[in-house]
Design goal:
Helices cover 42% and strands 21% of the residues. It is of the alpha/beta class.
Length: 413
């Protein structure tokens, strides 16, 4: 009976067992969605970000590579609860595993974004965001109605800008909570109140920066509808430049910050005049520059310039033509020399094969009854024959015939 303890178990190298673990984990844990608290958040100089994701009972390492980190819509920090998407990866050299994060949002932010996208799509279908319904701001507004928190940073920024620019505008503040329960109703009521009592030439709604959840009142449907229905042009100035709310799409103009909204409405007449003068100077300078360039271009097209340019253009082709002509002439001469040699050789062969050339050596051409006689057996004694010599001819009569066999032994022939 075999002892089970005596059986030989397979032995793996460290690389082999790590490879099996890597294959198992990476193949079985893809497209993960994990929620947890950020811990030990460490941005690297390379642009990659390393951190841990933990809860009360466990912790897992995470890495956010540079391209994915650049797409973050917030600045993560330790203690934040986030949701990450990514794949599980095994780092064989250290023998640990981590999540390679492709997307990270604040916990709960995904649902908020999905809700906002659905609301945005639905309101857009109603035409509330159409560009053709947006109106231009008045060039020189005298009165500004601001719907915001009376104690928030937004109203302080707006008033500081207007004071610094000495705009002389009157500002009506319609107090409204800008986050939390009931904020949306107060904002919508402030917009409608400003319209009913004609409290301004322009309405600014907004607040300072905050999380996506903090900015939700400006994306509520009643606020968006109040903005779209306003007969007074509305500027939406919610949060910082990277923040957004649905009121931005319904407003006649979106400003990146409340301060920027104040800058827009307080452009003074003197400043506009200076801008016009500056634009005129730039326009005249541009016209002079372009005119000068055009004149220089026209002057370049003189007859001398055109002739010189044409010569420069065709000179390489003329040189190439001369080279090709020399090559062609040389080839033709070689070909003619070859043909002349061939003709001479052919002429010599023709001359050497000519009967007259042969008869010049003492041979004669014998005709018998109009045909050339080449065999003595074809004639008879007494037959007349004609003999053609190299010079002249003879008529004769056959006196004696010799057989071809005898000709081979006759040394006189």
């Amino acid at each position: 009976m075999t002892d089970i303890n005596s059986r030989e178990l397979p032995v793996f190298s460290v690389s082999q067992i790590t490879g099996l673990i890597k294959e198992t984990l990476e193949g079985g844990f893809r497209d993960l969605s994990v929620e947890g608290e950020v811990s030990n958040y460490r941005p690297a100089s390379s642009g990659h970000v390393y951190f841990n994701l933990k809860d009360q009972n466990a912790m897992i390492a995470c890495v956010l590579f540079r391209n994915a980190a650049a797409r973050l819509s917030f600045s993560p920090r330790d203690g934040q609860k986030v949701r990450v998407n990514g794949d599980l990866s095994v780092y064989a050299r250290r023998g640990n595993y981590q999540i390679v994060v492709t997307r990270m949002v604040l916990a709960g932010e995904g649902e908020i974004l999905a809700m906002l996208e659905e609301r945005k799509r639905r309101l857009a279908l109603e035409g509330l965001f159409d560009e053709d319904r947006k109106r231009p701001l008045p060039l020189f507004p005298d009165r500004i109605a601001v719907v915001t928190s009376p104690t928030g940073a937004a109203i302080r920024d707006i008033l500081q800008v207007l004071q610094r620019r000495h705009s002389g505008m009157s500002v009506s503040i319609l107090p409204a909570a800008v986050q939390g329960e009931g904020a949306a109703e107060q904002i919508a009521r402030g917009i409608r109140t400003a319209n009913i009592h004609k409290m301004g030439d322009v309405i600014i709604i907004g607040r300072g920066g905050g999380s996506l959840e903090d900015l939700l009142p400006f994306s509520e449907e009643n606020v968006v509808r109040a903005v779209a229905e306003s007969t007074i042009p509305v500027i939406s100035a919610v949060g910082h430049e990277i923040d957004w709310a649905l009121s931005d799409f319904a407003a006649d103009l979106r400003a990146p910050t409340p301060s920027a909204a104040a800058e827009i409405v307080s452009a003074s007449r003197d400043e506009l005049l200076n801008r016009v003068r500056s634009a005129l100077r730039q326009l005249l300078s541009g016209i002079r520059t372009r005119t000068g360039r055009a004149q220089m271009l026209v002057e370049r097209f003189s007859p001398e310039y055109m002739e010189r340019t044409l010569r420069q253009k065709i000179q390489p082709y003329l040189l190439r033509l001369d080279d090709d002509k020399e090559v062609l002439i040389k080839a033709l001469r070689l070909r003619l020399k070859d043909y002349s040699h061939r003709i001479a050789m052919s002429s010599e062969r023709l001359r050497s094969g000519s009967p007259r050339h042969i008869m010049e050596k003492g041979y004669a051409l014998v005709r018998h009854r109009g045909k050339i006689l080449t065999d003595s057996s074809k004639a008879a004694t007494g037959d007349p024959i004609s003999i053609r010599l190299y010079r002249g001819s003879l008529d004769a009569t056959i006196h004696t015939l010799y057989s071809p066999e005898k000709e081979d032994t006759d040394e006189g022939i």
